[in-house]
Amino acid sequence: MERFKTEDLDSNVIITVGHFGCGKTNVSVNLAEKSAERVKTYLIDYDNVNPYFRSADVKDDFKAKGIEVIASDFANSNVDIPSVSPLVFTALTEAKEGARVIFDVGGDMLGAVSLGFLHDRLAELHPLVIYVFSAYRPLTDTPEKAYEILKEIEVSCKFKVNALVNNSNLGAYTQKEDVEASEGYAEKICEISGVPLLFTSYIPDIVNGKPAVKSAVLEMKNMTKKLF
Q1: What is the full per-residue pLDDT of the chain (228 aa) written as tens digits?
Q2: Distances from the Cα of 92 to the Cα of 43, 58, 86, 100, angstroms
Q3: Domain for residue 134, yes or no?
Q4: Which of the listed residues 61, 183, 200, 228 has the most CB atoms within 10 Å of its CB?
Q5: What residues make up the domain containing 205?
Q6: Is residue 224, in this structure, part of any structural domain at all?
Q7: CA-closest candidate to residue 125, choices 39, 36, 14
Q8: What is the rounded distance in angstroms from the CA atom of residue 18 to the CA atom of residue 32?
């Protein structure tokens, strides 16, 4: 088991997609924080679906770390409606000069379809599209179901997924055995999709020890709102 390093990401533009509740936002936020240790980093809150768990929540904390969080002007307000900040285009321009830009995209095909507005601009930058999955979500409790959602997202966003992230967890009740038990699921979805696993993610402050998995691992902080 080795630690995943953000310098191993092979694109300056990262797009994270996935099923509702898979932990995609927390993965995005953690990738942004770790990327900022090396390069100028932008985190784009492109979630027009879920108004509760949003990467915009870390905007103030990230500002002190030199990370610019770009979100709709209406994010986290009573008029939370889809809109794209013009600063997104500034970030994409800087990506050409070496900055890292991470898009946290809304869940499922509903969120992914909104990327169509930026498709041509993004395509020029050859983004790395990461599909985050959890073996413990009701609608992705089998690799086959998770793969169906992956294909629906690809159709909606008009980009191919080229990396997978295993973020299987049971929230605050997650134990290292739960992470380890998801390894077979991860191997199966890789086999079905033909897409490689980038890393397995977990939160050390919650699990009781280091999970023994074959893949690289990303140790994360819990940076999203807590339900309880």
Answers
A1: 699 999 989 999 999 999 988 999 999 999 999 999 999 999 998 876 554 445 667 777 888 888 999 986 544 444 444 456 789 999 999 999 999 999 999 766 666 777 888 899 999 999 999 999 999 999 999 999 999 999 999 998 899 999 999 999 999 999 999 999 999 999 999 999 999 999 999 999 999 889 999 999 999 998 775 543
A2: 11, 21, 10, 9
A3: yes
A4: 200
A5: 6-219
A6: no
A7: 14
A8: 17
Domain count, the chain: 1
Which tokens sit at 55? 């990467």
φ and ψ of 72, to 5 deg: -55, 145
Residue 97 burial (10 A CB sphere; 0-12, 13-18, 19+)? exposed
